[in-house]
Amino acid sequence: MRPGDPSFAVVPEQGSGSAGLRLFGLVYKEALQIIRDPSSIAIAFVLPIILLLLFGYGVSLDAKHVPLGLVVESPSPKTSDFAAALSHSEYFQIDRLSDRRLAVAAMLSGRINGIIVLRSDFARKLYSASGAPIQAIINGTDANTARIISGYVQGAWQTWLIHYGLDHGHSISAPVSVDQRMWFNPDIRSRNFLIPGLIAIIMTLIGTLLTALVVAREWERGTMEALLVTPVRIDEILLGKLIPYFVLGMGGMAISTGMAVWVFGVPFRGSVLALITISSLFMLAALGMGLLISTLARSQFVAGQVAIIIAFLPAFILSGFIFDIASMPAAVQFLTHVIPARYFVAALQSLFLAGTLWQVLFSNSIALAIMALVFLGVTRMRTRKALE
Amino acid sequence: MSTPVVRLAGVTKQFRSNQRRVTAIDGITAQIATGRITGLVGPDGAGKTTLIRLIAGLLAPNSGTIEVLGLDAARDAQKIQAAIGYMPQRFGLYEDLSVFENFTLYARLRALKGAAREDRFKQLMAFTGLGPFRDRLAGQLSGGMKQKLGLACALVHPPRLLVLDEPSVGVDPVSRRELWSIVETLVEDGVSVLWSTAYLDEAERCHDVLLMSEGRLLHAGPPGPMSAGLTGRTYTFSLNGMDKRTIIPRLRQHPYVMDALIKGSGVHLLLSHEPDVAQKQELAQELGLGEDDLHPTAPRFEDAFIALLKAPSAPASQNSLLADDGPSALHHHGIATNAGSGSVIEVEHLVRRFGLFRAVDDIGFSVARGEIFGLLGPNGAGKSTTFKMLCGLLPPSDGKALVLGIDLRKAAAAARAHIGYMAQKFSLYADMSVTENLTFFASAYGLGGLARNRKIAEAIEEFGLGNLAGVISAQLPLGYKQRLALACAIMHEPGVLFLDEPTSGVDPLVRREFWTRINAMAADGVTVLVTTHFLEEAEYCDRLGIIYQGKLIALGTPDQLKNAHRHEKQPNPTLEDAFIELIQNYDREKDHETR
Fold first, then answer.
1. So what's the architecture of B6-226 in CATH?
2. Which of A12, A226, A233 sits opposite B88 (nearest CB)?
3. Helix (H) or strand (E) holding B72
4. What are the pLDDT digits (tens) for A347-359?
5. How many Å apart are CA B126 and CA B152, to the nearest integer?
6. 3-state secondary structure at position B360
7. Least CB-CB distance to B185: which of A3, A21, A388?
8. Alpha-carbon span A231 to B78, nearest angstrom
């Protein structure tokens, strides 16, 4: 058929509900692009799984099998009893060294992280009031690990003293006795609090980074310009991005939660409905940030940089995901209030480990809702159907 | 006459860049008539795209009014956008969606569904010939097919005004011709078309032309009468053994000659006024010709453009200032003059494979010293691959490639030291000044100390960059950018110069100035290899090799190629006619073989 035919110029009927059709067209197109684009798949599915495996198995803030050098200056049944207790502990890996100098050399070469010295008067002083002198020298380069090791060594010493005393019918006096109990995470597995926080990171990646990139890509390739010269409206363009990436982000959340519970054995003690609600709010805030970045940066390179600097890194460092907010300097603590991931991480950690604590969820939800409204509102105001 | 589809009144548009206000559109008043093809013609940077975006309501003017289809573009942008068909540069396609999916998206955005959408799709696929490629991803289509799909997407809802922004860039001549016939059919059907282009030959096919330069409107009206005003001022004569390298600069010095241009084995002249008998005789004598050897010829649109740019009333063009201070003699090309008179570039059975795909498939040619040789072909034909192999940037898979006697398969780096390369769109450092660019390229070629300083001073002198030495190169006018790029490419006095589409999209004066320099260098013994898909550029070459689907399908001077395709149907073939026929014959033969 040629355009010369009368039917060519017939304008097709403009049906009602054309706004719905336009939105459907945009969402459908976006879905096809997500499925076909290897980088979308990578950010939405591969990266979360890699991060989960990394934080689930690789990165651990627990100190286990810490290599320690043990120097026994004058061996006796008592010292070997203590040495055996240390060796059997899963927290240490004991390397027996005959001489203090050898131990220092090993520490300098990095083979061991600490030295325990049982002095020659160990057996004699065990029953004295001042207690038996054991010396622990710990590599303090990593202050956090050093503190943990020091705690473990003390704990091991206390435990051994008590057991030894009971076995031999003496009561050996320990200066202070602390009875510790860990709530919410009794195994003290760092995995249990890292993985819930990771969900916030994954959703930031999808909501902010991926969204900012795909909008910038439309500008870069000139497709946005073609879209603008159609009956489409700004709200439809924005919704056409929001809906598919919202679904993708929530999918990422579901995958991460599933892996957390069934692969890594992280407990989930809260309500699923509360998880969905607060995740939706966070997703909207993250998408709002992504879309806002894309109104400012129209190249993928700039959009990617901006998204990493203002969304991803803060979510990683300042959200309380790894580093405790309460122990940050006051100024930095103040800064964390503008980071959506902060509220989400707090809510997630309580949902997974503590249960549905309404007061925690409520305040964090309000904060996230406000942030989502602000980001999306500013985006809507700043986006015009124009190229300037 | 019916009301115009677009009315522009005193439209001005400025952009802010680096604290400077740049005027992209400078007080344009014009109309675009209903039911006609209006060409928006001008070189790159003239403001064509800005004007199109203003008309589409994508930008708002700083002053003036724009009325499209009776609607105000500033107030009713949404309504205008819903009513017009628009194809931006690079066609606005989603490369990761198929032909059908792209079409479906635009159909849904224009509220077309169900059976009506199916019908329209079939109609447009038949119309554009894309039917067999329904499920192919847009990114895997050729330039010509992308262009047709872009057009189909803009035509989903038959528009009253169709706006096409440089639709023929990156498209081979065959597809370009098809696009024209499609658009002409649409116009018969009552659609008004605005077509922007930097190619002056396209202007002649438009019903009306808006000729732009540096944000201003130089001329509005049908192209015919525009060049008709030059009747009696255009002549051709045959070179007949005259030295074509020297004749052009000589002619341009002549008081009556406004423009002189090599066309195959002849010269095309534009005179400043219609000569009387005595003046004509005088001119012929000076050239050593009989009076009858100076043939009157029909003026072309390009002549009209040159006349406008050179007219005293023309806006003081930054670019056109260049045309008058022609290049000083270039005489520093020691390597080239010492080389023997044999072939400087020798290519035999050259092959480059990418996996199973043979991008270059058994190509052979040789280029003599001081020759300007052009590789011509559509995008994706293999000319860039050939070019990269000869520059030593890509190792050949098979065959022989010698540049200045150096085997590129063995000593690519050694060959590169004797090669000058100027990339398309000038690979300058935009944020560095003229001197900094020159210094960098001199150092990159291993020049240091006094030698470097001397060379930079020479380049600044030779290329007339003295007053601009400290200017950031991004802010240079296009013509000066081109000079600087060439100056950088020849800092090391190369014997061979490689040029990648050096003058596509620049105005005709800048193009002439550039080629005058290249001709002077060739006269000094520098061998020049040019790749292009731009036929006007091909006319400047001494010899052409036409590359198509990885093969060299024709080789000869521009005149030989044209003559080989002279027959009753085309008694006076242009290079484009010859090119299209060559490609069509090749396709037919190949079709025959596979059957």
1. 3-Layer(aba) Sandwich (3.40)
2. A226
3. strand B71-72
4. 998 898 888 888 8
5. 10
6. strand
7. A3
8. 7
- CA–CA separation, B236 vs B327, rounded Å? 24
pLDDT digits (tens, 9 = 90+) for B436-487: 989 998 888 888 888 888 888 888 888 888 888 888 888 787 778 888 888 8
Q: What is the DSSP string of A226-261?
A: HHHTSS--HHHHHHHHHHHHHHHHHHHHHHHHHIII
Q: Say yes or no: B429 contacts chain A, CB-CB below 8 A.
A: no
Superfamily, domain A66-168: abc type-2 transporter like domain (3.40.1710.10)
Listed residue (B54, B350, B358) closest to B212, CA to CA: B54
Which architecture characterizes domain B231-324 according to CATH?
2-Layer Sandwich (3.30)
**Is the pLDDT reported for residue A171 higher than 80?**
no
Q: Where are the domains of chain B?
A: 6-226, 231-324
Would an 8 Å CB–CB cutoff place B87 in contact with chain A? yes
DSSP assignment of B314-337: S---TTGGGGGSPPPPP---HHHH
pLDDT at A85 over 90: no
Closest listed residue to residue B344, CA positions, set B557, B542, B558: B542
Cβ-defined contact of A385 to B90 (cutoff 8 Å): no
Task: State the DSSP code for B567.
Answer: B
- Locate the chain A residue with the closest alpha carbon to B118: A12
CATH 3.40.1710.10 positions along chain A are 66-168
A12 touches chain B (CB under 8 A): yes
CA dihedral A345, A351, A356, A358 (to 10 degrees): 0
Mean pLDDT in order along chain B per 10 residues (595 residues): 86 82 90 94 87 93 93 90 90 91 93 88 87 89 86 90 88 83 90 91 90 90 86 86 80 84 84 86 84 85 85 49 41 42 86 88 92 86 86 88 86 84 78 89 85 88 83 80 87 88 78 86 90 81 90 90 88 86 88 75
ipTM of the complex: 0.77
Side-by-side strand order, sheet with B372-376: B419-422, B496-500, B527-532, B372-376, B543-548, B551-556
- What residues of A are in contact with residue B97 (Cβ under 8 Å)? 29, 32-33, 36
Shortest CA distance to A207 belongs to which of A275, A274, A276, A288?
A: A288
* Max CA pair span of chain A: 113
CA atoms of B309 and B509, how far apart (whole Å) = 8
